[in-house]
Structure prediction request, 138 residues.
Amino acid sequence: MKFSIKVQYGIQALLELAVKYGGGLNQIGDIAQSQKIPVRYLEQILLILKKKGLVSSSRGKEGGYSLLKHPADVSVLEIIECLDGPIELSNKKMKKVPVVFEAFEKIQNNIINDLRELTLEDMALKKRQKERAYIYNI
Prediction:
């Protein structure tokens, strides 16, 4: 199973917004530069996420993007489903071989549950911890 580049970039962008949550608007150019995402592609992704109610935007010189929900209320599953649709490892054709169908359905349910439990807040906390680990005081 491999997630699309759209999902990867979407998660990176939202993680950036989660780390900076509460600090005002974030300009798309800054997000794109720090996450190494092409600006045009990021614009398309953020437009989808805005339509799905995950981010808000403001135009103008001081404009930018911010999360509409607290990072603890945004699951990775929600982001994936907004950008790529539902995760489906099992399908109706597999029902012809029930053992295969049941195995893949169980795996699918485990993945979905793990992604539902993983939030932007969880990832933002880990990112902050890793960034602090690289700071040395002499």
Q: What stands out?
A: The helical segments are 5-19, 28-35, 39-51, 76-84, 98-117, 120-133. The chain has one domain: 5-133.
